[in-house]
Design brief:
mainly alpha, 7 helices, 77% helix
Length: 149
């Protein structure tokens, strides 16, 4: 079962269970997937990598919104955003720890034979594809910059 099919099936379950928060999060994800499919020349499905990218973006938006709500003292909205972020996390791969990411970046740099900041773009391209959904781009960038400097 693809990630897209799993989200659709879980959406049906949330409807039957009348789980409003989970249903709202899944509907939002599904709408973003449908939008991406129409942009991809009318494709019927997206591969799991594309769906993971959409999920990562949705999670980041939820986390940014959570920060804003907390700063403004909107506890009523914080709980709902947190619940939706938790729903999204279920579909993403387990995030890498700092140690795992540091080791993976070092291995990638060695694998690509990168030795200077001139190779940063090449390393970041490969790292972004390889660690999609498992690590934040800012963390990857900081580690690559540190290793190549």
């Amino acid at each position: 079962m693809t990630l897209q099919e799993r989200i659709s099936a879980d959406m049906k379950e949330a409807m039957k269970a009348k789980d409003k928060v989970r249903l709202a999060a899944l509907r939002d994800i599904k709408s973003k997937i449908m939008l991406a499919m129409t942009e991809a020349a009318g494709s019927d499905t997206l591969d799991d990598a594309a769906v993971t990218k959409i999920l990562s973006k949705q999670l980041k938006q939820r986390e940014d919104t959570l920060t804003i709500y907390k700063e403004q003292g909107r506890d009523d909205l914080v709980a709902e955003e947190q619940a939706q972020a938790d729903v999204i996390r279920v579909y993403l791969p387990q995030p890498m720890t700092e140690e795992e990411l540091a080791q993976a970046v070092s291995d990638l740099i060695a694998e690509l034979g990168a030795s200077s900041m001139a190779d940063m773009g090449r390393v970041m391209g490969a790292a972004s594809a390889r660690f999609a959904g498992r690590a934040d781009g800012k963390e990857i960038s900081a580690l690559v910059r540190q290793r190549l400097a």
